[in-house]
Amino acid sequence: MLKTRLGSYTVNAQLVEKLTDFFNHTVPGMLSSDMTVMRASDNTSLTLRYPDHAVRYLNASEYRDKPFNGEIEGIELELKHVMKFSDSSGWNEEGESYVDGDGMVLKAIVVDLSFDKDRDNNYLYMALQDDGADRELMAIQNRLLAMLEQYRNNHRLIYRSEWFPPIVFLGAGLFGSLTFLIHEQPLRALFAILFGFCAYLFIFLHIKGYSEFESSWQRRWNAFLGWLGFGIAGAVLSILFFF
Question: Is pLDDT of 85 > 80?
Answer without folding.
Answer: no
